[in-house]
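Appendix C reproduces, verbatim, an entry submitted by the partner laboratory led by Prof. M.T., so that reviewers can inspect both the input and the predicted structure.
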Amino acid sequence: MTSQHEKRKSKRVSALKPTYIYLKGNTIQVHDISNEGIGIVLADGAPSFAVGERLPEIPIPLASGTVTIRGVVSHVSYTTAGKMCGIQFLFEGTEYQAVIDFIHERLQNPAE
């Protein structure tokens, strides 16, 4: 049986500066991000997310301005970090480069 980690095509980056995005009217902490999706921490009182749910606007804050990307919830699970939600990006155009830029801007140690 293939694990979720083995199914990933791109490396997840979790060594981020404290990063938050605004979803469903709430500020939500980003746990990790890859070229394909984003993992968020669902703290107590956070809105609910359902597997398969489509998210029309995931804001990706960049130094040059915010880019919005569509996505779909791929999982909701519990880990040692708390309740987590994985969202797969659904790219329509130039958003892919925005994700790459976001990762570089948010890295704790950019030299890595």
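Helices lie at 4-7, 95-106. Additional entries are available on request from the coordinating office.
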